[in-house]
Design a protein that fits this description.
By secondary structure, the chain is mainly α. It has nine helices and four strands, in the order αααββαααββααα. The protein has two domains: 128 residues, no CATH class; 108 residues, no CATH class. 57% of the residues lie in helices and 3% in strands. It starts with a helix and ends with a helix.
Length: 297
Amino acid sequence: MTAKEKEKIERQKVERFISSAKYRRIYLDQEMDGRIDRVKCEDEEERCDMCCESDAMMEELEAKRQAHVEEARKEQEKQGRLMDSAIDIPSSSIRVSSVRSNGLDSSDGPFPSSPSAYSQSSTVSFNQGFAADQISPAEREEFQSQQIQRQQQRLYVQEHNQQEGHDIWDLENRLDMWHTLDECVDPEKGLVASEVEALKGIHFERYASCYDCGVAQQICTRWEEIREGNKKFQRIPEGVCQYNQIVRQVVAAIMVAGPSEVTDQEVWSHMRTIGIWGVNQQLDPGEKAEVKNGILK
């Protein structure tokens, strides 16, 4: 990586930290400790400004919920007092006008002592309509709880998106460091290029890997299956390899310029596992060629 590329990456890190797109400790731990599982400030840590803002929002929501609960309780007590006072009113004090039918007073009928049917139904209808117009305290509290739940869900989604944004940021940093072999400035670039040319001399089985890029014919877009399910492939006229100049370059870099720990883990440990050679033994040229061929496959 050139000095200019390093400067660009560092500048982007500073911009992301200042922009407050996510919790600050995510960037700090990523840069200083290499930690990538950070979501926000932990309980025993001093809270950053983003966490404090989130905490304040949650406290405000909880205060609103408590206020609504208290308001509902007072409203319920008020309704209870009104109902109690209504029950104490004597029925004789409620006067309802009688109904005239065909111009005659109902009291003039054959049953003067009978109560008016209209007055009874009117009273019931009025009371039912009054009750239907009221929102009960339980309904009010449920509505407010739903509002708080929706707000908490939005906060969760925001936090989840921030974590996804961190993963994207990490990938962007990795992409900024990737480059082709031609653009590489490492001193061992020449050795890797020579190894790539040597790998091109390896001959594969007829239906194994692409002769141009080294990727399996089943994957490479330069090839197509002759008949579905027979695992035999043929070249596509004017086809293009989607992973050109990747496989051989990676294998060559591991074999030639990779750290000894990486080479041992990715190459030699596998060979020891399948019994090709033992610990502290060296491969002869034929075995090395077999290793390279196996990696390419």
